[in-house]
């Protein structure tokens, strides 16, 4: 890390030294590599180690340093423990992410979940949306793996399913699709969700077009689905009361979409 920082002009004139914290209590975790993780280390440092001993160890290792970078393993639930260390040591302390699981990510997730529940939200861990019901062009109900017979109703729904890794997008043989609402898919210039030969680049290290895939949204961040226009067009076409002007307008829109 020190070598990487020196490559930046703002750190070129700084001297970097590596220090070590002598914490015998960690020896027990070192005996089992599966236990020597940031989460377990954080629990030990916060609950089983003398706070003053930890403060003295950090101050001794830091010496006269202007800034101290520590692995992110101080405080599992929130920032309070790390802030207490900063205040007690009187040093400019900074956290660096470690190998997964990331303590910073866990901390942020817990804080966001706590705030969400304070506002009246309810988390259903392990559940997953599988399909939706529409009334006109609005989603009114969704079905989940745990609620396949009793759908969940709401005035508004937020799509935050992620990409391929979290199954927010699914790649079938013939197309890339969004599995819950079957929304329109877009991507980079050369990406076509219905042509699998455009999904990848021949060079392995090059940016892969499929990574740019996502759902189409409008200026209000509302997701889009062309099939709604087809349904509207079919409804208008079967109605003798609809004017020819509207039919022609819809036909032009459909022709533009096909291109």
From TrEMBL:
Do you know which InterPro entries this protein is assigned to? FAD-dep_OxRdtase_2_FAD-bd, FAD/NAD-bd_sf, G3P_DH_GlpB_su
The regions listed as transmembrane in this protein's record are none
Protein keywords? Flavoprotein, FMN, Oxidoreductase
A single MF term (Gene Ontology): glycerol-3-phosphate dehydrogenase (quinone) activity
Q: Which residues form a coiled coil?
A: none
The answer to whether the entry has keyword Thylakoid is: no
Q: What is its EC number?
A: 1.1.5.3
What residue stretch is flagged as signal peptide? none
Name this polypeptide is given: Glycerol-3-phosphate dehydrogenase, anaerobic, B subunit
Q: Which organism is it from?
A: Actinobacillus ureae ATCC 25976
């Amino acid at each position: 890390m020190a070598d990487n920082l020196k490559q930046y002009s703002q750190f070129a004139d700084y001297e970097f030294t590596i220090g070590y914290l002598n914490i015998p209590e960690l020896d027990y975790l070192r005996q089992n590599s599966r236990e020597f993780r940031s989460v377990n280390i954080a629990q030990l440092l916060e609950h089983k180690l003398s706070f003053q001993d930890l403060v003295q160890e950090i101050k001794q290792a830091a010496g006269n340093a202007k800034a101290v970078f520590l692995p992110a393993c101080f405080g599992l639930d929130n920032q309070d423990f790390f802030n207490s260390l900063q205040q007690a040591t009187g040093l400019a302390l900074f956290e660096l992410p470690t190998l997964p699981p990331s303590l910073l990510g866990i901390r942020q997730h817990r804080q966001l979940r706590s705030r969400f529940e304070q506002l009246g939200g309810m988390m259903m861990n392990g559940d997953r949306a599988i399909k939706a019901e529409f009334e006109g062009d609005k989603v009114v109900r969704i079905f989940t793996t745990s609620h396949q017979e009793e759908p969940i109703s709401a005035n508004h729904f937020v799509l935050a399913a992620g990409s391929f890794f979290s199954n927010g997008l699914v790649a079938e043989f013939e197309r890339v699709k969004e599995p819950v609402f079957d929304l329109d898919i877009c991507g980079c210039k050369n990406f076509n969700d219905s042509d699998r030969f455009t999904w990848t680049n021949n060079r392995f290290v090059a940016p892969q077009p499929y990574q740019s895939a996502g759902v189409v949204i409008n200026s209000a961040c509302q997701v889009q689905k062309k099939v709604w226009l087809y349904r509207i067009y079919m409804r208008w076409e079967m109605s003798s009361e609809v004017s020819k002007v509207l039919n022609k307008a819809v036909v032009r829109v459909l022709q533009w979409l096909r291109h």
